[in-house]
Amino acid sequence: MTRIEQILQEIARLPEDQRLTLAHRILEAGEPEVTDDVQRAWDIEIRERIGRYDRGEARSRPATDVFRNLDSRLGS
């Protein structure tokens, strides 16, 4: 048995909330570090997007539609 298989067996014995926390931490560990400049740029982008939405310059649609569209584009 490989080390990964052993780890997976141990994970399977964890309560669901701990498995989800572990999954989140693993995914987070693979992300690049966010610098202050990047965070500021995202903050500006978010504010601009909200402003466009509030002014009626952007429209929204249900998440189910967005995911359905993505699934069809990815061939799922």
Brief write-up:
The protein is an all-alpha fold. The chain is 72% helix and 0% strand. The longest helix has 19 residues, at 36-54.
What can you tell me about this protein's structure?
The protein has 76 residues and is mainly α. Helices cover 72% and strands 0% of the residues. The protein has a domain at 36-74. The longest helix is centred in the middle third of the chain and has 19 residues, at 36-54. It is extended. The mean pLDDT is 94.
> What is the subunit arrangement here?
single chain
Q: What Rg, in angstroms, do the CA atoms define?
A: 19 Å
Q: Helix count?
A: 4
Residue runs with pLDDT of under 50 for 5 or more positions? none
Proportion of residues in β-strands: under 5%
Give the end-to-end Cα distance, rounded to a whole number of Å: 32 Å
Sequence-ordered SSE layout with sheet pairings:
Elements: H1 3-12, H2 16-29, H3 36-54, H4 63-74
Question: Which key terms come to mind for this protein?
Answer:
76 residues, mainly alpha, 72% helix, extended
